[in-house]
């Protein structure tokens, strides 16, 4: 299985033939092995549209990467949580960029990344301002990239105010995925989030501003759905302002046909210079986010794996390779070579087959279901769907809920890396313990005795007994060993 682990590291796979041979031996050499038609709750046609999009499919994010190009700096509204002037190269947060690009530079960067990052499947424009308000640059970038790399999926993110003006062009350009940020459907609540909007040549404030924004967001959503474009709705969860209200937002966007709802925690820090940062508005804890997400289950399908990326992020979700591709590092001229991306895709098709097969096998291998607890398990992974990262190297943990009913992904939690070869391990460890609130066990590829004992003292077990297992299968095996009951169903 060593070759598969090298895919799990998500560096460019170098020995596709070896990997296929290994899979053939295990009786799973074809991409049709397992459920290649996708999850049971999705039609095969829909699966085809999302299966390579790391944000629209939780399963795809183990294998595929996105990149954002920061060509849209201007914005037509103000949100109380956003300040695009504050920038830090080490920070992963929406609206943050190291350099703004013009469409020429963006095309060059996309080609350079596509040549180097074979996992790349999506090009997104998420600001740092608004992709629709800065439409001329968004459009030119997408049109030119599509000519060079026609199979790259195009994706944009907008507050929705200018969206209805461009829906027809969006459809003509085959942009299949659009994200609208909708934080409230009640203008009174919206007024606490948006101090002003700029619309129809003038600035609007207060409830009137939110009413206009809301009407335009809903109109844009309806127009996109009518053209069969997949819409993801982002909502920033702001405790005490719109947290309880997001249940209503979820219902409303479901009625209008949104495909996904992404409830994201407010990131708030006085140093960012935002209104909320300065007034001390806090963001929710991971457990508060989970509790809200659990309440809206049954409404619009939830995205739980969003990493709240920078507007110039590059790579697999959770890793950011943006600093490797700044303009000053790119060659004078670039030309697209599809070979590595093509090879990678064929390898992933095979590996996915095996992953699906392990789940099918686990379903078929049901043990008697007995009373056993519902637990949260945190997994250290570098991608590829495996438990393949050292505890001390994790910058985030993927969290799964496990019970006799199954294994379900519930979110990720970012942490400061424990081992950094310097001071600060104490602080990092305390942060990890706080972030892992509610988690009973950590599964990782390796963990030292010292951190393991310290975790145990605060009631968190840690184990590397399932190193390099597929994540869900590893969790299921761990659970079966601990509680004598195999989870009944494995869901991604
Ligand atoms: C930078 S925006 C770009 C797209 C567009 N301007 C918008 O707001 O939808 C990308 C996403 O990040 C969210 N965002 C920006 N600042 C945030 C913060 N401080 N905390 C949480 N989410 C934030 C926005 O609400 C939006 O959903
Ligand atoms: S709409 Fe987007 S870019 Fe504009 S202020 Fe809000 S979060 Fe920032
Ligand atoms: S911010 Fe969320 S939805 Fe956007 S690219 Fe990152 S993970 Fe995907």
From TrEMBL:
Pathway: Cofactor biosynthesis; Fe-Mo cofactor biosynthesis. Residues 61-312 form the Radical SAM core domain. It comes from Afifella marina DSM 2698. Keywords: 4Fe-4S, Iron, Iron-sulfur, Lyase, Metal-binding, Nitrogen fixation, S-adenosyl-L-methionine. The lineage of its organism: Bacteria, Pseudomonadati, Pseudomonadota, Alphaproteobacteria, Hyphomicrobiales. One of its GO terms (molecular function) is 4 iron, 4 sulfur cluster binding. PROSITE patterns: MOAA_NIFB_PQQE, RADICAL_SAM. Involved in the biosynthesis of the iron-molybdenum cofactor (FeMo-co or M-cluster) found in the dinitrogenase enzyme of the nitrogenase complex in nitrogen-fixing microorganisms. NifB catalyzes the crucial step of radical SAM-dependent carbide insertion that occurs concomitant with the insertion of a 9th sulfur and the rearrangement/coupling of two [4Fe-4S] clusters into a [8Fe-9S-C] cluster, the precursor to the M-cluster. This is FeMo cofactor biosynthesis protein NifB. Belongs to the radical SAM superfamily. NifB family. PANTHER family: FEMO COFACTOR BIOSYNTHESIS PROTEIN NIFB, FEMO COFACTOR BIOSYNTHESIS PROTEIN NIFB-RELATED. CDD domains: NifB, Radical_SAM. Its cofactor is [4Fe-4S] cluster.
